[in-house]
Amino acid sequence: MYRSVKTIMSAIALAVPLAATASDVEQAPKPDSPPTAQELRAQVREWQQSFHPARESSAKRPKIKLVPVAGPGGKMSGEHRFDLPDGCYYFSAKSVAACQRMLPTIERLRRQGFRIVNVEVGAAANFSHHYAIKTVPTILIKHGADVVKLESIQRPDGFRYSGAQPFEGDDWYERSPLWQATNLNKRDITLDLSSSAGRDLARRLAAQADVVVENFSPRVVEQFGLDYESLVALRPDVIAVRMPGFGLDGPWRDYVGWALNIEQVSGMSAVTGYADGPPCNVQGPADPIVGVHAGVALLAALEHRRRTGEGQLIEVAQIEVGAAVTAEPVIEYSMNGIVRPREGNRQRGYCQGVYPTDTEDAWVALSVRDDNDWSQLVDAMGRLGLLEDDRLATADRRAAAHDVFDQVVAAWSQTRSPANIVAALRERGIPVEEVIAAEQMYDVPQLDTRGYYEDFEHAITGWHRYPGWPFRISPGPARHHRCAPPTLGQHNNEILSGLGLSRDELAALRRDRVIGERVMS
Asked: Is the distance from CB of 174 to CB of 461 less than 8 angstroms?
């Protein structure tokens, strides 16, 4: 619902600094003059050589020798600052190559429990609802961000209820598989923004943020005093990413945007479905697509600020992203005056589809690209006489008689097992694969061998396997997830204490229901 992000990255350059908790840092003697990059690198290399992954206890963790810099405001050219509880430190990162070489060390630190605290290009506050916005902090998390998610006990993130059912118990809002899958690695805090105390704390968090991301309709954050102009007053170089459904101006500005209505008004639903059926809702891809667009824009803005010191306002209107994704049929109409019909699983130039097998609810997908594929398919089906059928003799004729093609293939496929079909057609070079259902995804050997899934224990639902990140950067960490998704308000004490609040003040906030750990019924 709401988030605050502390990102450990220097935009596109991936300049990643080091940090640790105070108990894990062994300070080197303070030098008479600032250390050189070579000296600092030598110290970290010494630590790397002593590292052994089997060491688990705090007493056996290798100590990091970091040289403190005099004064928390000090800064050396080319370095990236990070703050620890006992002072301000620097690690030299004068080249992208040097930073990339440090990525394996960063990952080892995280696995051993070292907590990354703060960096020069670092904090981002994220105020938003539901799915689209989750992609932006997720992108930052993969580069080491410390994400603090803000919601409230009055109105928790509505995505918590996606796929969860009340009969599961009073804590059913913690059990949504969709919410858990999109909130790994985050810390969670609750604030009632309808209260003056909640808004004050939100502004104090935003004042520390390098980036603020939100996807409410424009009027919401303006009422909270968290619009771009207000944020600039708190921090002049802030980057604000706003993701309203329909933009910050225009007659639709105050309409609320959801994946389903974005997909409908942008044309995505109109081109989805079977030729003889109605338009179909695409059921949600607009959300993550919008988030990825915003994430790329944010990386560019971070790089711009690194170079110029200037913050920026980024506006990502979700309807415009949806329109861009559906551009092809619009362009075709503008050029040719043709509105193409819905085509289901079909594709221009190919004969293809999803076909039944002899196993209930098991299907195979295949494509026939050209005459050679067709002759090979006919051979596999044992129906060479089809080569003499004029309706199917050429690619154009097969496309025109696609219904006949589907009937022929389905009549053969439904008498054989999925494995038999895949083996027979793959041997002949025909693109084919069994349609994998959700419950089978954990058993895909390729994903399992590559360690795509990662296991974590959630405080309420126990151990689960979570999807990993769909690309890798080398050199870099093999794993990106660091912890299970948080429970509601799990980190209230930790984060608000960091803002200077006392135990009595926290107790008063709970009493007034500004914060809390359980949803109000």
From this structure: yes
